[in-house]
Amino acid sequence: MNNAEDERRTILAIGIGANWDLDINRIFARFSNDLTTLIDYDRLTITTARRDGRMQLEFVAGMKAPEDEIGGLVVSVVGNPDGLVNPRDYGLHSQMTVPISAIDGTITIRSRDRNAYSPRHVDIMRQVVAQISPGISNAIHYQESQHRVMERTALAEIGRAATHETDLDSILLVVSGALSNLMNFDHLGTILTEPKNDTATIVCWSTAGLLGLNVGDTVKVDLAHAGSGILSGRGRDPLGLGAEGQDYDSEDRQWMQVPLGEESNPLGMLIVSSLADSVLGEDDADLLQRVANQIAPAIQNARLTADLTRAVEERRVIAVIGRAASSKTEMRSIFSVVAKELSKFVPFDRFVATIAVPDKEMLEISFVTGLALDMPNEGHQIEKPDADQIRELRATRAIVRNYQSVAEIVEVPGSDLRTKGLLSWIQVAVGDITDPMGYLSFRSKQKEAYTNEHIDFLENIARQVSPSLRNAQMFEMERALRDQLDSRNKELQEANAAKTRFLSTVSHELKTPLTIVSGFIDLLVDDADQFTDEHVEALNIMRKNSSRLGLLINDVLDISRMDAGKLRIETSVFQVDDLIVELDKSFEQILESKSQSLKVSMPDSDIWIEADRNRTAQLITNLLSNAHKYSGEKSQIRLSVVVDDGHLSVLVEDEGIGISAEDQKQLFTAFFRADNRVAREAGGTGLGLVIARSIAELHGGDLWLNSIENQGTTVAFKIPGITTEPVINPAEEAELSQLAQRSRLYPDTDWEDIGETA
Amino acid sequence: MNKILVVDDSSDIRLLLSRTLKAAGYTVSEASDGDEVIAATLSYEPDMILLDVAMARVDGFKALALLKKDPRTRNIPVIMVTAKGHPSDLETARTLGALDYINKPWAHGEVELRVQWAITSVLRQRDQASKRSQRLAG
Question: CB within 8 A of A711, min separation 6: which ones?
Answer without folding.
Answer: A655, A658
